[in-house]
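for the writeup, i need someone to sanity check this before i put it in the appendix. the sequnce is what the collaborator sent (i think, or maybe the updated version? ugh). structure was predicted straight from it, no edits. if anything looks off just tell me and ill rerun, i have time this weekend
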Amino acid sequence: MQESANETQNQLNGDTPPLVQENSDVEISFQLSMPNGVVVEETGEGESFRFTIGDGTFLNKLDELLIGLEVGTTGTFTIPPEQGFGQPDPANLQTMSKSDFPADMPLEEGHVIGFNTPTGEEIPGKVHEVDGDKVIIDFNHPLAGQTVIFKAKILAIHS
């Protein structure tokens, strides 16, 4: 096993590179994509994303995958649905009346609509099916049932 010059120098100096740990304040660049290469979300060129491990910003599984990585490390992880966004839940399909929607709103399969919750948050729902005057809305996460590829580079660990 070969070590890099930096690792050897760190060992000679008694320094160990900082590692991501639970509750670390980290700065990363990342890409979330599908196995076919379609990018779902990513940080832009020269941008970074800062958060605290375990704060709920990412799925817990994504947080766990970063633990143990050191600054400068890039990790690429294949995440099955059960560890990522879960499987679609039939209970998340809701039937609504067409009259619940503005008359000028396109109610076509695949169209995503923002719905306000009682707490004031907005959640996306996708038109799953239109049947006469009934509209079935899918409130499952858009990536439910999908395997995703998560690639992240640890840019910094803040103390």
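Confidence is low (pLDDT under 50) at residues 1-12. The first strand starts at residue 25 and ends at 33.
thx in advance!!
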